[in-house]
Description:
By secondary structure, the protein is α/β, with parallel strands linked by helices. It has 5 helices and 8 strands; from the N terminus they run H-E-E-E-E-H-E-H-E-H-E-E-H. The strands form 2 sheets. A 6-stranded mixed β-sheet has the order 1-8-7-4-5-6. It has a two-stranded antiparallel sheet with strand order 2-3. The longest helix is centred in the middle third of the chain and has 19 residues, at 63-81.
Amino acid sequence: MNKIFLALLLIITLNTNAVELKKYTGLxxxxxxxxxxxxxxxxxxxQYKGNIVLVQFWATYCPPCIKEMPSMNSLQSKLxxxxxxxxxxxxxxxxxxxxxEKFVKIVNPEFTILMNEDGSSIQQWQVFAAPSxxxxxxxGEIIYTLFGGVEWNSKEIVKKITQLSKF
Length: 167
């Protein structure tokens, strides 16, 4: 995927003020993923059935993506302590493995980073901004979406995820 195009997506994202999860109204109800992590292990979304899954599309050059990763770590930790089945799959938006590995050493995400060097998932999921977030229920359906950065460990988001975990 062309980095100029991704830079334009970032500009669009920086101009949006997304602060809350919105009900998903897109056409992709039960999305799929089949991507490698940084160790080459393939992850599919179906492996995570029974969990609430946050799927995030991000980039190393995206300031909101960088800023929110610590709150994603905190969210995952909070939900684990509350015994809520929750996982994060962070899909990099068409950067090289070397770029992502360098970034990961600095930011230290405590969740799964997936590689999508050819950008095919960006098109499949109809992603148009970085970060783009999709909250998926235990049955594998997209329920909420959010385009732009947010503090993931906020009371409102924790409450919505907790509610989703009951179904």
